[in-house]
Amino acid sequence: MPSRNNIFRQVDWFTIGLFLALVIFGWMNVLGASYNFDQTSAFDFAYRSGKQLVWIGTSLLLGMVILMLDWRVIDLSAYILYGIMLVLLLVTPLLAHDVKGSLSWIQFGPVSLQPAEFAKYTTALALAKYMGSYDFRMRSWRDLLVPFALMVVPMGIIMVLQKETGSALVFTAFLLMFYRQGMSGYVLLAGVAAVGLFILALKAGTIAALVTVAVVALVVIGWYLWQGWRDNRKWHPQKIFIVLGIAVLSAGYCAVCGYAFEHVLQPHQRVRIEVLLGMTDDPQGAGYNVAQSKIAIGSGGLIGKGFKQGTHTKMNFVPEQATDFIFCTVGEEWGFVGSSLLLIAYLALILRLIVIAERQKDMFSLIYGYCVAGIFLFHLTVNVGMVLGLMPVIGIPLPFLSYGGSSLWGFSILLFTLLRLDASRFEKMR
Predict the structure, then answer these.
(1) φ/ψ of residue 112, rounded to 5
(2) What is the DSSP letter of 107?
(3) Host H or E run for residue 113
(4) What does the alpha-carbon distance between residue 259 and residue 270 come to, in Å, rounded to a whole number?
(5) Among 12, 4, 1, which residue's Cα sits nearest to residue 354?
(6) Are 42 and 379 in contact (CB under 8 A)?
(7) Closest to 167 measured CA to CA, from 2, 419, 383
(8) What is the pLDDT of residues 79-123, one digit of tens each?
(9) What is Dmax (Cα atoms) for the chain?
(10) Tens of pLDDT along 294-320?
(11) From CA 111, how far away is CA 106, in angstroms rounded?
(12) Residue 255 vs residues 208, 212, 219, 227, 241: alpha-carbon distances, Å
């Protein structure tokens, strides 16, 4: 049985190896993205590469501390940490300085921290605590009310009060865990349909979206009636009413899409969506980052230009190249081969997280494991997607690669907490 004395014998070293490989490769790309010819040392703390080393070192220290904790402390502190984080999220807009329209960063002397990065961790703990209790069962939609509230409250604070849409959308990653625990697939289908209707309403207009909803509803009802007539079965009017009810709700949703787009989203967010959907062409404005990142990635070719040899990087063509757009540094300096190997490493990490989650002996650890896997998958998909121009630019970091202490600390805490719970899985059966 593992104990605090031999915990390091039980830890999953394969996952730690992936973590170390990613943070080291991330530091190399931060150096490549921020390096200039005046920089005398890669370890100079006056530059981003030196500062990132500090964040890496402190992340490793945090990981060690977490591994030394008693796993019961993690379980017992879940609600406490969640409550503290909600208070911190509420006061952040009062203390934060405006950063590109966002009120999500708190200054502590020379260091800036973003509480939203840690809110994902506390929310994952709270969800695992509630849904991992012995009396919780997902039998109907009512059983999802409290878990959805635990997810939506911090998400709403971050989106509305802090005006940080990207960080708020990350909380939808918990839907992967909800689905694993028995949530109907129709909920995910409804989410996909909502995105589709939103795009249709913007590109084709509200009337076209309403006509589409009506046609789909009539087709579904007609198919149901035809099936009943063909098989000589009795029709159930309530099923038709359900379809009509969904159609009415969808029509109402389409009607408010335009208003929400114009009055809820920030101007720069609206422009980014319009550029992505081809509604406007702004290569020198909102579309500049994506256009330049694609040029940088394409210029890398098969094997890249070499470490610290990216011309787009050196000439600062891509803004935020060391943070949100660091994947274009990978593409330019390491080419298609390097980018593919990086994505394979991420795939291995996410699959390993799922394996770790599935082998847990208690529901708290299993649910938390899927929360972590969902968060990493969401960050990877959206970050790489926006750099390639496949998704709107919402400004979320690439795990373990992007420059910054808040994100690196947040991802490290998420990962090492799961490793600590996993290392004690046999102890929990005593």
Answers:
(1) -115, 135
(2) E
(3) strand 111-113
(4) 12
(5) 12
(6) no
(7) 383
(8) 999 999 999 999 999 888 877 777 888 887 777 889 999 999 999
(9) 83
(10) 888 888 889 888 888 877 776 777 777
(11) 8
(12) 11, 13, 21, 32, 21
